[in-house]
Amino acid sequence: MRRTTAITVACMTAAALTVTACGRTAENGGSTAGQTGAAVSTGKATGTITVWAMGAEGDNLSKLTKDFETANPGVKVQVTAIPWDAAHDKFTTAITAGKTPDVAMVGTTWMGEFASSDALDPTPAQIDKSAFFEGAQKTTEVNGTSYGIPWYVETRVLFYRTDLAKKAGYDAAPTDWQGLHDMAKAMQTKAGAQYGIGLQAGGEGSWQTVMPFAWSDGADLTKDGGKAYNFDSPQLLKATQYYQSFFTDGISNKSAPATPTTEPDFASGKVPMFISGPWMMSAVEKVGGAGFKDKYNVAPIPAGTAGSSSFVGGSNFVVFKNTKNRDTAWKFVSWLADPKVQAKWYTISTDLPSVKSAWQDPALASDKKLAVFGKQLETAKAPPSFPTWEQAVKGLDTEMEKITKTGEDPATGLKTAQQQADSIGTGL
Predict the structure, then answer these.
(1) Which domain holds residue 323?
(2) Which residue has the higher pLDDT, 124 or 12?
(3) 317 sits in which H/E element
(4) What is the rounded distance in angstroms from the CA atom of residue 45 to the CA atom of residue 239?
(5) Which CATH number goes with the domain that contains 405?
(6) How many CA atoms lie within 13 A of 423 on its CB side?
(7) CA distance linking residue 369 with residue 374, whole number of Å
(8) What are phi and psi for residue 134, nearest 5 degrees?
(9) What is the pLDDT of residue 34?
(10) Is 6 among the domain residues?
(11) Are 198 and 252 within 8 A, CB to CB?
(12) Are residues 301 and 207 in the same domain?
């Protein structure tokens, strides 16, 4: 759903900085733990900056930047929209050639790679890191140094049909692992569902559905002081065994089509539960038709021994070290973190704010379902910012497919994924 609530954007004034830059070294791609970016001047922004942004965000960003230009007369923000499928190669080519934009939207899993290439400017002290959801802020950090800000966030929660849950004997969502398994089974036996819950049967990105359970049981994807991958931990093994049980018990479809049919299956009741992000609210309501929003609800990921956790994703905004207008670049990024600006961006894009206080805006606070996502974000976690993350996690996704579809022993699969990750290394 697109909100049209009008929000007045306050004029941006940059705060003075009191911390100067720490020296950079050649180790770890020029990154030293605890770096702080050089001070940014006070006063209005001036000059021109170039900005790259991907997908729908790239298409819509100019609607927001006009407010920054109005607040800073004479400033020009030049936005270039880039397709997601071409973005990574475009960035790496630009970094190699030394022709990066001043500012850019960057996927969270690219941060380690770009920071280790010494392409990113460390975050100045003016930006209050505590203003962001902790898990989102962690996505900006590489070797203890923050680069940029978390711009928008998303997390995953449980979607479930409340009307069918009542037929299955449930008035509320499950709160623990056993409760989820039991309720999903009851959706089949008592509410007529073909499958109790839709879970991804391995393949690309399946780790994002498995890890919320693992994190909820205290798992850590790193070991040796954060210097190595940790795919075969006892916590991840326990979560993977639990995840596998939905497929071996016939509660989830191990032969689900490669192209998801989540919305129609949810609307028809064929699969009345699934785990996904906030974008699915408008998607299922569109397919379900009038009144469907009253037939479902969302709930936090059922808790393990360490509580409820989930995956935090989204995109960050960074400043490249090659910028010719660093002050204005950082003033723009700082402005993007203003709670009022974050709330207005939500009305334009429906991207969820990374700044916690922005969730108090009426555009978000009035939506009870959205509040569940906000609560989940308080404990949501991100994968490690290793430059090789996307390469290493492919092995985990591959093994998860064997575990869900062919019944591979989870311990064997995770050991294989660990061996592959060890051979790849962290890239740091």
Answers:
(1) 28-155+312-377
(2) 124
(3) strand 312-319
(4) 49
(5) 3.40.190.10
(6) 7
(7) 9
(8) -55, -45
(9) 66
(10) no
(11) yes
(12) yes
User: H or E element: which one contains 275?
Assistant: strand 273-276
At 294-346, the pLDDT tens digits run 999 999 999 999 999 999 989 999 999 999 999 999 999 999 999 999 999 99
250 or 25, which is more confident: 250
List, for residues 37-76, the tens digit of each pLDDT value: 777 778 899 999 999 999 999 999 999 999 999 999 999 9
Clarify whether residues 246 and 257 are in a common domain.
yes
Q: Domain for residue 16, yes or no? A: no
d(CA 208, CA 383): 9
Residues 6+ apart with CB under 8 A from 210: 236, 239, 240, 243, 400
Write 178-186 long-range contacts (CB < 8 A, 24+): 179/302, 180/302, 181/242, 181/245, 181/246, 181/249, 181/251, 183/273, 184/246, 184/251, 184/252, 184/273, 185/249, 185/251
Please determine, for residue 10, whether its predicted confidence score (pLDDT) is greater than 60.
no
Residues 91 and 166 in one domain: no
pTM for this one?
Answer: 0.84
256 and 300 belong to one structural domain? yes
70 and 193 belong to one structural domain: no
Same domain (yes/no): 161, 150: no
Select from 356, 377, 398 the last residue of a domain. 377
pLDDT at 379: 94
